Each structure stands twice: as structure tokens, then as C-alpha cells.
# Entry
Amino acid sequence: MVYGLVRTGDITFRLPSLPKFAKPTPPPPKQVLDTKPFGVTTNYPSLTATDHMSGRRNAAYRIVTYIDYDCEQCKEAYQLLQKFLTERKGDTALIVRHFPLDVHPQARAKAIVAECIAQRDGEEAFWAYTDRLLTSDQGDDTMVEECAESRDIVRRLRADNQSASQYGIGGLPALYLINTKTKKALFAVGVLTVKQLHELVRQTK
# Structure
């Protein structure tokens, strides 16, 4: 370890410094995938009566995204989605479905709480809780025990997981962008930029 001296007034501090040959470890690359390899498809998740949807049911475009509340890339993707939706000015609705991964042992508990909040306080409360978890990581796990035995919630989480399996979701973040008029959709995996999301819209016209 190499030390340097810093003098201020009558006090001298001995501070550690890195050797000249040491270089900081670069951050891992973001998982940003090109949307072109996935192509347009007519096989996509349909809207159900129990889906959590933000936006109009008759919106021109619909996004179905699968989330894990403890997935860091899901959080980044969700925040970019919010910026994209703002730019779309109401013509795109967002649907979230749960897909907690085994590598995140607390993610299922958070999904249970989210569903419990939806049952108790409604959709607006569900989205407020989801926004907190995916933007600031502030959730409430005090409701897990009282909600974990709810058959409705267990069925809901199972249905979301079956949907993910049915459409071959193997990693997160993942989404479908659907043109509700042309019935075309495009599937993409990874953290998509706002520009890439607009490109999905163009490809489904």
C-alpha cells in the first residue's frame, strides 16, 4: 500500500493511494440487446381480466412486461419504460406480470405483498407500491405472512409464472409490445432504451 501526505494547518493526514499500475475494475456491460433478432410475431400474451394495467384498455399499443422486484435490470428497464410512456402521451398501456427468479429469494414475498395490496386497496395502491420497489427499493414486507396463505394470490402468481413459461420467458427483463390495431407484436429481452422502445412501435405498424 502506498501512502501520501496531506497537510492542513498543523495537522498532517496520511492517506492511502493506489499504486500507479492499479486500474479500477470497469463496471459490467449493460444487457442492452438489439430488438431486430426477435422479429414481429402474432403469438403474444392476451389481456386478461385480472391483469394489472396502467393506461387505457383500448390504447393503440400495449406492453406486457414480466418483472422481478429484486432484479436490478428490471428496475432500470421499468424506469426507462416510464419515460417512454410519458413520451407516448397516452397511446400505450403497460401491463406487469410477476416472474420472481429463484436467484432472488425475497422477490416472491414482495410479489405476494403487491398482490395483497391490490386486493385490499385497489389498483392505484398496487402501482404505487410497484413504483416504490422498482424506483427506490422501498417496500413493506410486514404483510407477507397474512397474505401468503391467500389462495387467490397463490393462483395469481402461478398464472403469471405459467404465462412466462408459455411464451418462453427465460430471463429478465422481458416484454412484448403489441399493436392492438394491426395485432402485431414484438418480443424483446434486456434493458431497452427509450429510442429502442419507439423502434418497437415502428416495427409493429
In short: The beta strands are 2-8, 11-17, 40-41, 52-54, 61-67, 92-98, 174-179, 185-189. The two ends are 60 Å apart (CA to CA). Confidence is low (pLDDT under 50) at residues 1-37.
